[in-house]
């Protein structure tokens, strides 16, 4: 996600926020903005002003969200069957063998994964991995969700802690 060069948003004739151009040599954090404080019951008016050399690449969305507890999010994560997990494991093992150069030294037990989560450094209760991840290492679901909840950098949320793919 990225904001345009400048953007100002007014709700009900009151400016809610203004995004200024990024300072040279500095990276701007482009996180979503909360607008609920300015909304009222019934009809609301929005006024958005944008400047950018390439306006066609931007889309603006107003999304109604509801905070969820970690337990609620856990119930929405699909659980793969044992057979699907075996197939996926076989695919990952086979693809890692194909990608090896032959120069690596394979020690006994090198096909094993740690049982500790790379986020919490504790034993995993619910091991998970991204659908597109090509590694065997898992991480703990609750540990991952809690770390995302507390993470200030919006652009680093929902990223695999092992391989940096977007989950």
Automatic annotation (TrEMBL):
The membrane spanning regions, by residue number, are none
A Pfam family of the record is zf-MIZ
UniProt GO BP: protein sumoylation
Keywords, sorted A to Z: Metal-binding, Zinc, Zinc-finger
Signal peptide positions are none
Checking PROSITE patterns in the record gives: ZF_SP_RING
Q: Please name the GO terms that the record assigns under molecular function.
A: SUMO ligase activity; zinc ion binding
- Every copy of the SP-RING-type domain together lies at 102-167
Is Metal-binding a UniProt keyword of this protein? yes
Q: Return the CDD domains for the record.
A: SP-RING_PIAS-like
Q: Which GO terms describe its cellular component?
A: chromatin
Q: Which PANTHER family match?
A: TONALLI, ISOFORM E (PTHR10782:SF4), ZINC FINGER MIZ DOMAIN-CONTAINING PROTEIN (PTHR10782)
Know the name of this protein? Answer: SP-RING-type domain-containing protein
């Amino acid at each position: 996600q990225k904001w345009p060069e400048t953007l100002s948003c007014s709700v009900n004739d009151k400016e809610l926020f203004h995004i200024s151009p990024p300072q040279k040599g500095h990276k701007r954090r482009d996180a979503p903005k909360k607008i609920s404080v300015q909304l009222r019951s019934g009809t609301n008016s929005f006024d958005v002003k944008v400047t950018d050399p390439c306006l066609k690449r931007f889309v603006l969305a107003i999304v109604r969200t509801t905070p969820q507890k970690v337990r609620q999010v856990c119930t929405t994560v699909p659980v793969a069957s044992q057979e699907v997990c075996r197939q996926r494991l076989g695919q990952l093992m086979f693809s890692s063998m194909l990608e090896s150069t032959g120069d690596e030294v394979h020690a006994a037990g090198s096909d094993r994964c740690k049982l500790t989560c790379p986020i919490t450094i504790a034993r995993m209760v619910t091991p998970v991995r991204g659908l597109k991840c090509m590694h065997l290492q898992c991480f703990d679901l609750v540990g991952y969700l809690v770390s995302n909840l507390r993470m200030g950098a919006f652009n680093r949320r929902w990223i695999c802690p092992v391989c940096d793919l977007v989950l």
